[in-house]
Design goal:
The structure is a homodimer. By secondary structure, chain A is α/β, with parallel strands linked by helices. The first copy, chain A, contains 14 helices and 17 strands. In chain A, strands 7, 8, 9, 10, 11, 12, 13, 14, 15, 16 and 17 form an eleven-stranded mixed beta sheet that branches. The first copy, chain A, starts with 8 loop residues before the first strand and ends in a 5-residue tail after the last strand. At the A-B interface, helix 2, strand 12 and helix 12 of A face helix 2, helix 6, strand 12 and helix 12 of B. Strand 12 of chain A pairs antiparallel with strand 12 of chain B.
Chain lengths: 439, 439
């Protein structure tokens, strides 16, 4: 502040030289002219750190820039902007915290750190009058954080419905279109590099839950953390579920849903029946889409590649340019909006929605009535039912019902009761249904 | 600059109290708290001007705020931000120019002024160190100008494919889904308030052309003006065209297309066959969608309500907040990126694309060969042909062909030649086909 001397150039330090980090380093070099024009100063990659010594022998990162020790970079007073791309909670969070405390701007793609420690880190950045930018943490190359922060800021946002994990969307698309089983589709995703060797974080919804916590905090100005987000993965889905969904007019997507109504805030990630005429039902493969419902705008959807080296690097570089402009002008970004701590996340058991249920029942008279009675006893009413596929040899039948809106707690206890009924052979699957309109 | 005294409040002047203007005034009042928190200062609507005296008798605009004379507002030194919402070229352009020259920030939704005078007005704003914001000029409440400017700025953008006129998209959707003729669908749109009494600007593609000029200038950093944009309306489309399109696997949309390849920049608005598996083909009713293809991000799509009082007001208020933050911090926005004047818009005749052609021909032997020869003589090759609907009484048949990529100039001269052939009774329609992939 008050420093009117234009700087000669701005120095960047990069922690993590994986696919995204290397992409960022390459673009900083190859598009140096474009970037310099936009910032009004040259950006130099002064230091790049990676634990893997071999990363120091590439043409991209000269030996004098490379270090295996991230501290070298944090302690370098010449570095203005630290770009953290190692992912995971520790040591990334400590690096970010220290960089901020040393007065450096930070750009990160780290959804886990943001979802667990975002509000503290943003407050720390305010205190040190630097910026903490995280556009790349959600939706890869799709601009969504900045539009939420800036353009939609006067809207009261009632809901976010998002496909924010490309890996699971790829798997679900394969299951739906090619009739693959989950394990086969997962294997294919792994072979193509869309899924990790250990796919837990994607497949069980952790990744989407982190991203949803970030979006909900921003959209509702409520403190939503990773641990507040209910999440359920896609591994229980079977081919029949897609067949029935289609018959009923739905696609199945792993949706991240955040809603607010009065004091109630709900955040959840789970497989969801999405009406097939909605645009989100048509988002296939590794693509992401984030629908934001504002009171003024109505539904707005942001769509694109949610992952990958170049799309993510695009978001990172966009943030680096904004950080650099802010430094170049000698002006820290304005303070973060205060979070409303009076509103809390509502427990999942309070959810009211519709449900799809697929059961294997004994094929004898009175069983359907028994099943219906359990639902009725829990105030769950059936909107439609399909009974199909009698298995003569096992003497069982498969039944599918769609319910009217019911309470999650009631549904869970009805399922508990069904497990104890001998005539209900197997609870095939239960999937929540969203009938919100996009148009 | 250098003025560190925090201001007491920021004063807004509003020109034009139509539906959008009234919406803006209402939101400034009703959401004053939210806005003040984000700006760090109170925003006051100090003056509102409208030629219609009756607008001064609403509870929204107190008498001491209302004026029928926009000059009162321009000449008021206390007003920091002028919001221009009268639309049209004159006198709006003069008001904007004068407001800037008097050191005021300007927020506008005026696509015509931007598409005709944007570069000069932005340069004037740079010179006077104020901001000229125009998010609402394209896509209503959908954030697209700011993301293009900020988040996607490091991308080299190869193409924009956009549905940016809700009126025509509504009409086309009605023609496609309900089998209405153009005139009936237009009438329905007018009854619903989606189309003006004089629908020329929407229906003939002027509105979309203005918006495309704005987007192309921003995306390509080339000086593209309204007059550079080829545009063709939707009034020639007939019900059969939708039927054939469906049969061939396409939807028909009024697309605004901007492409750059090397030194060639193409900008055009016309009815287009869009492959039905692409998301843009699924954008129905009054909704808009803008697809931007970046070298790093790949395709990114922004979707939402492209018009209407509240969505447009949302974009306007978003811009007002940014203007106010900039004023509050005593810091003008950075200069606009320089436009590359070496690249010019390529003439439409240079376009290479595929074409759909529907003709009524004499139903006698040799006619198809004659038709095919005309195309072949112009190096246009046919990829598929459908001959249907022989009209026994008139002794004519309808033929539909899809061509391989061909030159626009060649297609136009082949049509010229066909008009002189007696066996070709009528050139039903010719529609360009886009086979670009979104995924």
């Amino acid at each position: 502040m008050g420093d009117v001397t234009k700087r000669e150039g701005i120095s960047v330090g990069l922690i993590g030289l994986g696919v995204v980090g290397s992409g960022v380093a390459r673009i900083l070099l190859e598009k140096a002219d474009v970037i310099a024009r936009q910032v009004g100063a040259t950006l130099t990659l002064r230091r790049a750190a990676d634990l893997d010594e071999a990363k120091g022998h590439s043409s991209l990162i000269p030996p004098h820039v490379f270090t295996t020790n991230a501290r070298t970079l944090l302690e370098d007073p010449e570095i203005d902007i630290v770009v953290e791309l190692i992912g995971g909670e520790a040591p990334a969070e400590g690096f970010i915290r220290e960089a901020i405390a040393r007065g450096k701007y930070v750009v990160t793609a780290n959804k886990e750190v943001l979802a667990k420690h975002g509000p503290e880190l943003l407050a720390l950045a305010d205190e040190h009058r630097v910026g903490l930018f995280y556009e790349a943490s959600v939706g890869g190359g799709i601009p969504v954080i900045a539009p939420l922060k800036r353009n939609l800021q006067v809207n009261t946002i009632s809901a976010i419905h998002a496909i924010i994990n490309g890996t699971t969307n790829y798997i679900l698309t394969k299951m739906e279109k090619d009739g693959l089983e989950f394990s086969t589709a997962l294997k294919e995703a792994q072979d193509l590099g869309y899924a990790e060797a250990d796919p837990t974080s994607d497949v069980e919804g952790y990744d989407a839950a982190y991203k949803l916590a970030i979006l909900a905090t921003l959209a509702f100005r409520v403190d939503v953390r990773a641990k507040d987000v209910y999440h359920e993965g896609i591994s229980r889905l079977a081919y029949q579920d897609f067949r029935y969904a289609k018959e009923l007019g739905y696609a199945i997507k792993l949706l991240a849903i955040a809603t607010q109504e009065g004091d109630s805030v709900q955040v959840r990630v789970h497989p969801t029946f999405v009406r097939e005429d909605l645009l989100l039902a048509k988002v296939d493969g590794v693509f992401n889409a984030i629908q934001v419902d504002g009171d003024l705008t109505g539904p707005v959807i942001f769509y694109g590649r949610g992952a990958g080296s170049l799309p993510t690097a695009s978001a990172i570089i966009g943030d680096i340019i904004q950080a650099a402009q802010s430094i170049q002008l000698g002006l820290p970004p304005g303070p973060q909006p205060k979070l409303d701590t009076s509103r809390k996340v509502t427990p999942m058991s309070d959810l009211r929605t519709r449900y799809y249920m697929r059961m294997t029942i004994a094929d004898s008279s009175g069983v359907l009535a028994q099943f219906a009675k359990v639902l009725a006893d829990h105030s769950i009413s059936i909107s439609s039912a399909i009974q199909t596929e009698v298995d003569q040899s096992a003497n069982t039948a498969e039944i599918v019902v769609m319910t009217h809106p019911a309470q999650e707690a009631a549904v869970q206890s009805s399922l508990e009761e069904m497990r104890s009924l001998e005539v209900i052979k197997e609870i095939g699957n239960v999937v929540r249904v969203e009938d919100w309109g996009a148009e």
